[in-house]
Amino acid sequence: MSDAVLASRTDAAWRALADVLDPEVPVLSVLDLGIVRDVIEAGDGALEVTLTPTYSGCPATEAIEAVVLAALQPLGPLRIKTRWAPAWTTDRISEEGKRKLREY
Fold first, then answer.
1. What's the pTM?
2. Residues 80, 85, 88, 94, CA torsion sign
3. One digit per residue, pLDDT tens: the chain, 104 residues?
4. 64 HSE (CA, 13 A, CB side)
5. Cβ–Cβ under 8 Å, residues 52 and 88
6. Burial tier of 53 (Cβ tally within 10 Å: 0-12, 13-18, 19+)
7. Best CA proximity match to 66, nearest among 56, 77, 80, 76
8. CB 80 within 8 Å of CB 65
9. What is each CA distance from 44 to 1, 41, 62, 85, 91, in whole angstroms?
10. Residue-wise burial string across 7-40, b where 16 or more C-beta atoms lie within 10 A, e elsewhere
11. 61 and 31 Cβ atoms separated by less than 8 Å
């Protein structure tokens, strides 16, 4: 697969993730919240999305994984990785996310 196709798939994934809302704070996308660490094209051709939940007991973790997978399904094979370290902090919330929270 060419680098242009790889870039377009990962770019498309990032654009799609901007519309995936957090189930607990539905004014924030998973990108605004900063739980998406990375999106890469893995060696086997799957898109690999790395998520860091807001805390280890987050009840929405499985729901977030499901909506991320559903949003990215049209892009081909997918895989979710969970990364716990470094831990998520409120510093990961984007400036746009902070603005949305103030308005909410």
1. 0.87
2. negative
3. 545 555 689 999 999 999 999 998 999 999 999 999 999 999 999 999 999 999 988 889 999 999 999 999 999 999 999 999 999 999 999 999 999 999 99
4. 28
5. yes
6. buried
7. 80
8. yes
9. 11, 8, 24, 25, 33
10. eebbeebeebbeebebeebeebbbbbbbbbeebe
11. no
How many other CB atoms are found less than 10 A from the CB of residue 72? 21
Query: Which one-letter amino acid corresponds to residue 76?
Result: G
- Alpha-carbon span 16 to 10, nearest angstrom: 10
Helices (H), the chain: 3-17, 30-33, 61-72, 95-103
Q: Please say whether the beta carbons of 41 and 8 come within 8 A.
A: no
1, 4, 5, 13, 65 from 31: Cα distances, Å: 27, 23, 23, 11, 13
86: how many CB neighbours lie within 10 A of its CB?
A: 9
| Structure token pair of residue 31 | 């990108």
